[in-house]
Specification:
The complex is a heterodimer.
Chain A lengths: L4 H30 L3 E5 L15 H10 L4 E3 L5 E3 L2 E6 L5 E6 L13 H14 L1 H7 L2 E6 L4 E6 L6 H6 L11 H4 L16 E9 L3 E6 L23 E5 L4 H9 L5 E2 L7 H5 L4 E4 L6 E7 L9 H10 L2 H9 L5 E2 L18 H5 L3 H10 L7 E6 L3 H16 L4 E6 L1 H7 L13 E7 L27 H12 L3 H18 L2 E7 L3 E4 L2 E2 L14 E2 L1
Parallel strand pairs in A: 1-10, 1-11, 15-16
Antiparallel strand pairs in A: 2-3, 4-5, 5-7, 6-7, 8-9, 9-10, 11-19, 12-19, 13-17, 13-18, 14-18, 20-21
Helix pairs in contact in A: 3-4, 9-12, 10-13, 15-16
Chain B lengths: L1 H28 L4 H6 L5 H10 L6 H13 L13 H36 L4 H15 L2 H15 L15 H35 L2 H8 L4 H12 L1 H25 L5 H11 L2 H29 L6
Helix pairs in contact in B: 1-13, 5-6, 5-8, 5-11, 5-13, 6-8, 7-8, 7-11, 8-10, 8-11, 11-12, 11-13, 12-13
Classes of the chains: A alpha+beta, B mainly alpha.
């Protein structure tokens, strides 16, 4: 046979057409079979660690919410409600809390949940969690009285016991079997058996690719309707799969094609594409969102001087930072409150600087009053996370504009995480400024969030020290009732914006995108629950 | 020949040893402390120090290197810092998608590229030649991820012919396996096609001007046997060489292609590990890639003597 251009082209086209027809047919069939009671979701990142006590990663907290349950939980109004607990009492002197677990609780291996499991879980969690550590300083003992009853005995009255056990900032207090809860808190547990609404299917999970959760047939939901993390966790699908799709454009295309049902972080700059798709809903589940935070190193000049720290309040224009990364004003806001905006502790005490900023002349004057001598100011610059990349460059430029010798120390986020822990002088591997973010809901609690502490070199990076601040935090922890807490929160903020432990860079929300055939998605900060969702 | 193979295998062990030292030093001297990452965002300096001690990161570098290399020699690549799973197991789970993508890409690229190269040489100077070589330049110039996104947009979203992303193990059947690999194979293979097609054309042009080809034509040998049997076989050495060189290109491209098409292969494993400073995984994967590259080059060298009997070792 003689090879000609025509036979060559015809042969190639026939092969391609046959292959496409074959594969197209089986693909459609496979998708049709898979769509039934399964939700495929692309979350914020890969689930690298499975122990929600060992790590503060939000994605691991999501995993925890699937397979574990909590003693208390925040409802849609951010009020703590009993979850695994049936009833509880507080002694008249406020020193003893006694709890009774509700009937029917059992782990997914069929064993009943007992108070011994609870006590061991609280102890392990309290080693890793900042709020837990704060509570344990006041705890005399935690005892299992019988299979269903346990008690927390305190040395002094402490108003946050229930709030801390219900909080959604990571790590949450998930209840594990005593066997796993006895694991060293610095080590990960290796078995993942909980009493939550789903069971972790390790057989079908592929690390780095997909994480499979099956409905827990033994789970007994509460009778109340679902509200936030509280109420009845009624599972309405057979299976949820967290698909790990690194590339957000690919994930977006998969959502449009119906290959996935839910995407937690669609790229803001491409949101209009999804908004135009009638099969996709855009929604904000976490209404308080996140806030950007600039930490100043208190240990070395210039920020060992309060004037230089106050200068940063006047230098920063939050609008500029938000615009640079989030673009669309529907999804960000400026916020002067040290407890974030939209939270119960939000207030406007001592925020005159916010109304004046940006005021570069005032900032320049304050740097001069601080005796700034032209030494380099090292700004840690993570290039692989958009917000941190943009924010570090803006800060450096604004500092240069007023004559401060800003130097960017560029690396990826892993490099920043390492260097921010260095307490040496900036010229010897330390730093002056680093930028991060956190969930805004967590800023509402001056005990739970590590960045709220001002306890020096034992505290969080930047190591601010302020005795009055620490005293006020303790007063807040002991306060009874919301109004009392709000009053102390005002005092904390009044004092904070005088000594300036950090500088806010704005607050934003991240819309999620999902197929319109998903109904009943609950709205709660920090966690995305997959119970209560129907796939029609 | 046997002596040559033994010598080459010996030098391969040496090369792998050097690669091991470089990989270890590169990772441990670059900025980034896995203990700080592992300990989490709220960790205090004391907690970070505890984690560092537990991971053995406080030990002197030589001690860490001896511990690591001793494990490697026993086939133990260590435990992932984050997932707590053995690295060998994690790599093993990711091998099938990467091998599948690499093989389909090589087959696709060689079949298309050699056909293009032979056709272009046969029709040298014509519109076909210019079109094919123009296509090759385009294929080499456009980045893998651009081709990938274009294919996803056109074929998956607009036409709905193929899935956007993912991988189906071959155990689920050839159909599902192939349907997930078509687009990534094309995206990854285009640059490879361009590389091989151009060298095939050049090499064929040289051979086609040889006297024995003219003699074959004069004797009335048909075009196809003349091109494939007489000319292509003798043009094979440079083509095989560039296929070998292209393996490095392929390894780099696999990382990007796996990310764009969400294929859970070794490439994505190492990218994730780098972001998290999961040293045991990074070291294991780089050793694997280096071993593959060294082995492929050995096989290419050995193939020369089969393609050209005048080459002897």
């Amino acid at each position: 046979m003689r090879t000609t251009r025509r036979t060559f082209v015809h042969g190639s086209m026939a092969t391609a057409a046959a292959t496409t027809a074959l594969t197209n047919l089986s693909w459609r069939s496979a998708m049709a079979q898979a769509s039934g009671g399964t939700i495929r979701a692309v979350m914020q990142g890969d689930l690298r660690a499975f122990d929600p006590i060992w790590t503060t990663a939000n994605i691991t907290a999501y995993h925890g919410a699937m397979i574990y349950d909590t003693l208390f939980a925040l409802d849609a109004d951010m009020k703590p409600q009993p979850q695994m607990v049936d009833t509880w009492t507080v002694s008249d002197d406020g020193l003893t809390y006694e709890f009774v677990l509700r009937d029917g609780l059992q782990f997914s291996d069929g064993t009943p949940v007992t108070s011994r499991d609870v006590v061991a879980s609280i102890r392990r969690w309290a080693v890793r969690d900042g709020a837990g550590q704060h509570m344990m300083l006041r705890v005399k003992d935690i005892v299992a009285k019988d299979d269903k009853t346990f008690a927390i005995e305190l040395n002094e009255p402490y108003g946050l016991v229930i709030d801390i056990m219900a909080k959604t900032s990571t790590p949450l207090l998930y209840i594990m079997r005593e066997k796993e809860a006895m694991t060293d808190p610095m080590e990960q547990v290796t078995e993942y058996i909980g009493s939550g609404p789903f069971i972790f299917n390790r057989e079908e999970t592929r690390q780095g690719a997909q994480y499979v959760y099956d409905k827990n047939p033994n789970y007994v939901p509460r009778s109340e309707p679902a509200s936030g993390m509280a109420g009845g966790k009624v599972v309405k699908v057979d299976r949820v799969i967290f698909e790990n799709i690194d590339d957000s454009q690919t994930a977006m295309a998969a959502l449009q094609a119906g290959e996935i049902d839910f995407m937690e972080l669609p790229p803001i700059d491409l949101l209009s594409v999804l908004e135009a798709d009638p099969n996709i809903t855009i929604d904000v589940l976490n209404q308080t969102g996140n806030y950007g935070l600039m930490r100043l190193n208190f240990l070395y000049p210039p920020f060992d001087n309060v004037k230089a720290r106050q200068a940063m309040l006047y230098l920063i224009d939050q609008e500029e930072f938000m615009q640079a990364t989030f673009g669309d004003p529907r999804y960000y806001r400026k916020c002067p409150s040290n407890f974030a905006c939209g939270t119960t502790m939000e207030n406007d005490a001592n925020t005159e600087w916010f109304k004046a900023a940006p005021d570069p002349e005032r900032a320049k004057q304050l740097f001069e009053e601080a005796g700034y001598d032209g030494r380099p100011v090292v700004v840690l610059h993570a290039t692989n996370i958009d917000f941190m990349n943009n924010a570090a460059q803006i800060v450096a430029q604004r500092l240069r504009d007023i004559g401060v010798n800003a130097e960017l120390a560029t690396s990826d986020w892993g490099g920043v995480v390492t260097r921010r822990a260095v307490q040496d002088p900036p010229e010897q591997g330390g730093w002056n400024i680093f930028i991060t973010w956190a969930g805004a809901a967590s800023a509402n609690n001056p005990i739970a969030l590590a960045a709220h502490a001002a306890n020096g070199t034992k505290g969080w990076f930047g190591w601010p020290t302020d005795e009055k601040h620490e005293q006020l935090r303790d007063e807040w922890a002991a306060a009874q009732g919301l109004e009392a807490q709000q009053e102390i929160a005002r005092q904390i903020q009044e004092n904070a914006w005088n000594f300036v432990p950090h500088v806010w860079l704005g607050q934003w929300v991240s819309p999620v995108a999902y197929r319109t055939n998903l109904e009943g998605i609950l709205k709660i900060p920090e966690i995305i629950p997959f119970w209560n969702i129907e796939k029609t | 020949m046997l002596g040559y193979i033994i010598r080459r295998l010996g030098s391969t062990v040496l090369v792998m040893g050097i690669v091991g030292v470089f990989v270890f030093l590169l990772l441990h001297l670059s900025p980034g402390d896995p203990a700080a990452i592992v300990a989490g965002d709220n960790a205090t300096p004391d907690q970070i120090a505890q984690v560092r001690e537990r991971l053995g990161l406080d030990d002197p570098l030589p001690v860490q290197f001896i511990r690591w290399s001793g494990g490697v020699l026993r086939g133990d690549l260590g435990i992932s810092i984050f997932s707590n799973e053995p690295v060998a197991k994690l790599i093993g789970e990711r091998l099938e998608p990467t091998i599948s993508l690499s093989l389909t890409t090589i087959v696709f690229a060689v079949v298309i590229a050699v056909s293009f190269g032979v056709l272009a040489a046969w029709r040298a100077g014509t519109l076909i030649d210019r079109a094919l070589m123009g296509f090759s330049v385009l294929g080499f110039s456009v980045p893998v991820f651009v081709v990938g996104y274009l294919l996803i947009y056109l074929v998956s979203i607009n036409l709905g012919w193929l899935p956007v992303q993912g991988y189906a193990p071959i155990a689920e059947g050839i159909g599902p396996w192939l349907q997930r690999l078509i687009l990534p194979t094309i995206a990854l293979g285009l640059a490879y096609v361009a590389l091989i097609a151009r060298i095939t054309r050049t090499s064929m042009l040289e051979v086609l001007s040889e006297d024995y080809i003219r003699t074959a034509r004069a004797k009335g040998v048909a075009t196809r046997p003349m091109l494939l049997k007489h000319a292509l076989k003798n043009a094979g050495v440079p083509i095989v060489t560039v296929i070998g060189i292209g393996i490095a290109l392929l390894i780099g491209g696999v990382v990007i292609t796996e990310t764009v098409f969400n294929i859970p292969g070794v490439g994505r494993l190492v990218v994730d590990a780098i972001a998290k400073r999961d040293y045991p995984i990074i070291q294991g994967v780089i050793l694997l890639f280096s071993g593959v590259y060294v082995l492929v080059n050995l096989l290419i060298d050995l193939s020369y003597s089969f393609l050209d009997p005048r080459i002897r070792y």
